[in-house]
Amino acid sequence: MQDRRTALATGLFGALMLVAAVVVVVDARRLPEQDSATGPAVMPLIVAALLAAVGFGLLVQAGIRLRAAEPTPRSGAGWRVVALVGALLAFAALLPLLGYVVTATGLFVSAALLLGAPRRWVLLAYGWALAAAVFFVFDRLIGLSLPSGPWGF
To answer: CB–CB of 10/66 below 8 Å?
Structure first.
């Protein structure tokens, strides 16, 4: 048996995918026409169709499961959402001051701790390695500049 909250979340995600499909179609229609058979709007329209199909499927699945779902007791997880939003806001506020690697590491560690990650002692190393790898790829290899902070990374 699936709980009600999971079925509602599935339906919400399906609805968001349908909205995203509509946005992609609207944006694809604004692209300039070309003489070739496959213009620039072909691929976005294919992606929009796939988004719509999966979104519709998730909505149908959620509707079916919602009828048989059991109500779930309140878990008090609302504070986690508030804390995650706070971590994201702190990331955005501190990014220009401390740089990408430091703030992304903090965001990774705080999100992992709030979501109940096991092996807490390795989170800092994982977060630092992931943030440093993303910084290296985007800033050094691709050339998309990320805030480097006072330490140069």
So the answer is: no
Tens of pLDDT, residue by residue over 55-101, are: 999 999 999 988 887 776 666 667 887 888 999 999 999 999 999 99
Q: Look up the domain containing 83 and give its range.
A: 78-142
141 vs 46: CA distance, rounded Å? 30
Classified as helix, coil or strand, 70 is strand
pLDDT at 75: 65
Same-domain check for residues 85 and 48? no
64 and 84, same structural domain? no
Containing H/E element for 95? helix 78-98
In a domain, 22, yes or no: yes
Which residues, other chains included, contact 146 with Cβ-Cβ below 8 Å and sequence gap of 6+?
A: 99, 100, 135, 138, 139
Task: Decide which of 35, 68, 101 is a domain's last residue.
Answer: 68
Residues 6+ apart with CB under 8 A from 5: 72
Backbone angles phi, psi at 30, to 5 degrees: -85, -10
